[in-house]
Design brief:
5 helices, 2 strands, single chain, mainly alpha, 110 residues
């Protein structure tokens, strides 16, 4: 059992567990967005994922993967490879406006 932040339960920054706060807590965890990024291209095993996420410890990677499984963002196939669920893949669509904003922000700082 992991301690994945989920909507409707208290999370960092919200005692009510508002969905946005739960998502920010989940994806704000150390290494989480990197793990999600590396899962974007399809199924990958634990060891290969460790290589792609150079520098992450096995314990932290395992914890992040369990949190993603609990949150219905990732799943495993019969070969025990991890991959994003359709819901997990939709995260990239949701992040597109934030990416666009961040590019404009970077330009404004020059």
């Amino acid at each position: 059992m992991t301690k994945a932040p989920l909507p409707g339960k208290p999370v960092r920054g919200s005692s009510t567990g508002r969905p946005l706060m739960a998502a920010l807590d989940l994806f704000g965890r150390r290494w989480m967005l990197r793990v999600v990024w590396e899962l974007r291209n399809g199924p990958i095993g634990f060891r290969a994922l460790m290589v792609e996420c150079a520098g992450v410890s096995a314990a932290v990677l395992r914890e992040r993967l369990l949190e993603l499984l609990d949150a219905n963002v990732a799943t495993q196939n019969a070969e025990r490879q991890y991959y994003l669920t359709p819901f997990g893949l939709s995260l990239f669509e949701a992040l597109t406006p934030l990416e666009n904003w961040s590019r404009q922000w970077a330009k404004s700082l020059k």
